[in-house]
């Protein structure tokens, strides 16, 4: 049975000035995502700044998100770390916290080989009883999943989904077609990218994984709904309004998502040092892009 629908909103991790997890603000973000039409929420992805949180903080983020979601939508929890031992500890923590599925990136200081990646996923699926999503993020991890390697990993018992990506609309649609043909039918195919993910949906993928959807869920759900309904022209027209923000997020990542959330009145709090908020010019661009957006229909 499929776990996620057309849009998973990746939430930033709100922090207090003393660098604690701001659980009340996280609950607010979960509520907004659900009300905005997201079919799932994800915590501790790249947008959630997982690499800057310790194990206890990451467990608390999972617990707070699961509590706030209260079964209304599934919760996907990232468990990225440099060593398999750390990944397994985080995976157990997330499962015990009530996460519905795990997102496993291929984190490494030395780029991993195909066999090392396969063994990582085999180890995770061996110790947890909840579904695992393979995460393709070559920009951050320096590991580039081929379609054949995603197929190999997806055949492991316990792997239920893949979060893929591409560098252009044509690449995304082409990979979606190939993955849908080669992966087991029960494995959910999804794509990330605040701009390009919609092309995964238009190419037949099940899910769009978006960081900006964590702070603009209604806008992104509107695009995702149009795409999954087969209304490509409407989906792309709606996406055009979000393109300026998506372009900024493509280079600024979590910094931009934080700034958008703050501009919308969500007290996300400070970024973990050494990360810094976008400069004045980028903040002005964010304000202009938000001002140009109308209310979702």
Which helices and strands appear, and what pairs or packs with what?
Blueprint: E1 7-10, H1 23-36, E2 40-43, H2 55-69, E3 75-78, H3 84-97, E4 101-105, H4 114-127, E5 132-135, H5 138-141, H6 147-154, E6 159-164, H7 169-182, E7 188-192, H8 197-202, E8 207-210, H9 217-228, H10 232-252, H11 254-263, H12 280-292
Parallel strand pairs: 1-2, 1-8, 2-3, 3-4, 4-5, 5-6, 6-7, 7-8
Helix pairs in contact: 1-2, 1-9, 2-3, 3-4, 6-7, 9-10, 10-11, 10-12, 11-12
Account of the 3D structure:
The chain is an alpha/beta fold and about 300 residues long. It has one domain: Aldolase class I (TIM Barrel, Alpha-Beta Barrel). About 50% of the residues lie in helices and about 10% in strands. It contains 12 helices and 8 strands. The protein has helices at about 25-35, 55-70, 85-95, 115-125, 140, 145-155, 170-180, 195-200, 215-230, 230-250, 255-265, 280-290; strands at about 5-10, 40-45, 75-80, 100-105, 130-135, 160-165, 190, 205-210. The protein has an 8-stranded parallel beta barrel with strand order 1-2-3-4-5-6-7-8, surrounded by 7 helices. Strand 6, helix 7 and strand 7 (about 190) form a beta-alpha-beta unit. Helix 3 (about 85-95) runs parallel beside helix 4 (about 115-125). The mean pLDDT is about 95.
Summarize the structure.
By secondary structure, this protein is an alpha/beta fold. Helices cover 49% and strands 12% of the residues. It has one domain (7-292): TIM Barrel (Alpha-Beta Barrel).
């Amino acid at each position: 049975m499929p776990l996620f629908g057309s849009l998973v909103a990746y939430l930033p991790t709100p922090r207090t000035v003393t660098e604690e997890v701001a659980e009340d603000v996280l609950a607010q973000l979960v509520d907004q995502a659900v009300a905005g039409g997201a079919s799932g929420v994800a915590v501790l992805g790249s947008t959630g700044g997982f690499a800057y949180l310790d194990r206890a903080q990451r467990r608390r983020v999972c617990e707070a998100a699961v509590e706030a979601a209260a079964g209304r939508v599934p919760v996907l929890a990232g468990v990225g770390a440099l060593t398999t031992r750390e990944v397994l500890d985080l995976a157990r923590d997330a499962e015990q916290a009530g996460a519905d599925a795990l997102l496993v990136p291929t984190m490494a200081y030395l780029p991993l080989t195909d066999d090392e990646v396969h063994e990582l996923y085999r180890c995770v699926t061996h110790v947890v009883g909840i579904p695992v999503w393979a995460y393709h993020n070559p920009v951050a991890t320096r590991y580039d999943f081929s379609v054949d390697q995603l197929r190999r990993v997806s055949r492991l018992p316990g792997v239920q989904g893949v979060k893929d990506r591409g560098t252009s609309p044509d690449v995304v649609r082409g990979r979606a077609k190939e993955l849908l043909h080669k992966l087991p039918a029960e494995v959910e195919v999804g794509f990330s990218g605040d701009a390009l993910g919609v092309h995964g949906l238009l190419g037949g993928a099940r899910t769009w994984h978006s960081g900006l959807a964590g702070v603009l869920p209604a806008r992104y759900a509107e695009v995702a709904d149009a795409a999954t309904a087969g209304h490509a022209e409407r989906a792309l027209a709606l996406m055009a309004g979000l393109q300026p923000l998506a372009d900024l997020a493509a280079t600024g990542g979590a910094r931009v998502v934080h700034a958008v959330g703050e501009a919308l009145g969500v007290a996300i709090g400070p970024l973990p040092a050494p990360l810094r908020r976008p400069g004045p010019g980028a903040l002005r661009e964010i304000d202009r892009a938000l001002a140009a957006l109308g209310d979702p229909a």
